[in-house]
Amino acid sequence: MNPYRLYLVTDDRQPVDTLKTVVAEAVRGGVTMVQVREKHGDVRAFIERAQAIKTVLQGTGVPLIINDRVDVALAVDADGVHLGQSDMPAALARQLIGPHKLLGLSVETEQQLFEAESLPVDYLGLSAIFATPTKTNLIKEWGIDGLASAVAQSSLPLVAIGGINAANLQDIAATGVHGVALVSAICQAQCPRTAAQDLVRLMS
């Protein structure tokens, strides 16, 4: 099974109880990986959220990934970490988490895509495919053609991020990308399970 296929990134504005329900339902609907994000810098709250989601994911086989923070990933024994370009260097993160945990890296330019080839990472998050309200400091909008060309160039699995929804998902899947990462299409859906099921259907 491809763990990157439907990659849920949590909405850090949702209270932890809501988040637990969203994640549980989304996984039932077909989400294959969950990244916990906490942008407000409160480490204790981050650990609490990560621990809560880890409990929800127990026994599902769905990996728990922590956004940005290697210390939080180690504290909760998560399945991996996803780094941004301004976070800890990938080589150092790999040393800390060991060889068996997943390590993802966001790439925002062709140069970063090229440089990532020599880094000890397992997959890349290609950002942003389309402009989106959750991404305010956008460097590049890859679009469908840019995504297709990145898929052709990279030897690593790619996860498409940014502005992805039911309307453009089939075009994105047609590029051969390994997976898509979504926040609001699932977190803000009336029924996260149905939303995930619909997204899986559109990708197949």
UniProtKB/TrEMBL annotation:
Entry note: cofactor: Binds 1 Mg(2+) ion per subunit.
Reaction(s) this enzyme catalyzes, per UniProt: 2-(2-carboxy-4-methylthiazol-5-yl)ethyl phosphate + 4-amino-2-methyl-5-(diphosphooxymethyl)pyrimidine + 2 H(+) = thiamine phosphate + CO2 + diphosphate; 4-methyl-5-(2-phosphooxyethyl)-thiazole + 4-amino-2-methyl-5-(diphosphooxymethyl)pyrimidine + H(+) = thiamine phosphate + diphosphate; 2-[(2R,5Z)-2-carboxy-4-methylthiazol-5(2H)-ylidene]ethyl phosphate + 4-amino-2-methyl-5-(diphosphooxymethyl)pyrimidine + 2 H(+) = thiamine phosphate + CO2 + diphosphate
Physiological role: Condenses 4-methyl-5-(beta-hydroxyethyl)thiazole monophosphate (THZ-P) and 2-methyl-4-amino-5-hydroxymethyl pyrimidine pyrophosphate (HMP-PP) to form thiamine monophosphate (TMP).
Domain of life: Bacteria
Domain Thiamine phosphate synthase/TenI, residue spans: 6-186
Species this chain originates from: Oceanisphaera arctica
Sequence similarity: Belongs to the thiamine-phosphate synthase family.
EC number: 2.5.1.3
Requisite cofactors: Mg(2+)
Keywords: Magnesium, Metal-binding, Thiamine biosynthesis, Transferase
Positions that bind 4-amino-2-methyl-5-(diphosphooxymethyl)pyrimidine: Q35, V36, R37, E38, K39, N67, S106, K135
InterPro entries for this protein: Aldolase_TIM (IPR013785), ThiamineP_synth_sf (IPR036206), ThiamineP_synth_TenI (IPR022998), TMP_synthase (IPR034291)
GO biological process: thiamine biosynthetic process; thiamine diphosphate biosynthetic process
Bilayer-spanning residue ranges: none
Keyword Magnesium: yes
Enzyme class, UniProt record, top EC level: transferase
GO MF term set: magnesium ion binding; thiamine-phosphate diphosphorylase activity
Binding residues annotated for 2-[(2R,5Z)-2-carboxy-4-methylthiazol-5(2H)-ylidene]ethyl phosphate, in chain numbering: T132, P133, T134, G163, V183, S184
Pathway the protein takes part in: Cofactor biosynthesis; thiamine diphosphate biosynthesis; thiamine phosphate from 4-amino-2-methyl-5-diphosphomethylpyrimidine and 4-methyl-5-(2-phosphoethyl)-thiazole: step 1/1
SUPFAM superfamilies: Thiamin phosphate synthase (SSF51391)
GO cellular component: cytoplasm
Binding site for Mg(2+): D68, D87
NCBIfam families assigned: thiE (TIGR00693)
Protein name: Thiamine-phosphate synthase
